[in-house]
Write a structure and sequence with these properties.
Helix content: 10-25%
CATH class: Alpha Beta
Number of domains: 1
Radius of gyration: 15 Å
CATH architecture: Roll
Distance between the termini: 22 Å
Number of strands: 8
Order of helices and strands: HEEEEHEEEE
Strand order of the largest sheet: 1-2-6-7-8-5
Number of helices: 2
Structural class: alpha+beta
Strand content: 35-45%
CATH topology: Thiol Ester Dehydrase, Chain A
Length: about 140
């Protein structure tokens, strides 16, 4: 059961990103859809995400999926609960050209403090299929 709205989740994520102070603009990821078992988000790259040749780096792609998975995990917990990545496996399928990315994430399992997700990343500039696929598991720490 979702325990927050898309706007609440976006605001919490933006606040956490701004606290880190590592990006010139805290709005790295923008949520588009938040449903019980599905999340869709967009990400625009920064200059430091792009490798020579105009390809988005692997760490930037991984970070995007990790951020979206974290959002799915905390959206199903009590407000204020955090989550950490417990497992992550990724396949890079096609080069991701510099530009906007879209992730569609599906919850494979939501049980107690654990969320297991399946994520597909696509680029509007790549019409032949997704650029990456990942599965990940997130765990929320016990509340004291």
């Amino acid at each position: 059961m979702l325990r927050c709205t898309i706007d609440e989740l976006q605001a919490w994520f933006d606040e956490r990103q701004a606290q880190g102070g590592t990006r010139p603009d805290p709005r790295v990821v923008t949520l588009e859809v938040l449903e019980e078992r599905r999340l869709v988000a967009r990400r625009r790259p920064y200059e430091f995400d792009v490798r020579p040749g105009g390809i988005i780096s692997g760490p930037a792609l991984m970070g995007f999926i990790d951020a979206a998975g974290w959002m799915m995990a905390v959206a199903h917990q009590e407000p204020g609960t955090d989550a950490f990545t417990a497992d992550f496996a990724m396949q890079f399928l096609l080069p991701a050209p510099a530009g906007e990315l879209v992730v569609e994430l599906h919850a494979l399992r939501l049980a107690g403090r654990t969320a297991t997700i399946d994520a597909w990343v696509s680029s509007p500039a790549v019409t032949s299929g997704p650029v990456a696929h990942a599965t990940a598991r997130f765990v929320s720490p016990r509340q004291r």
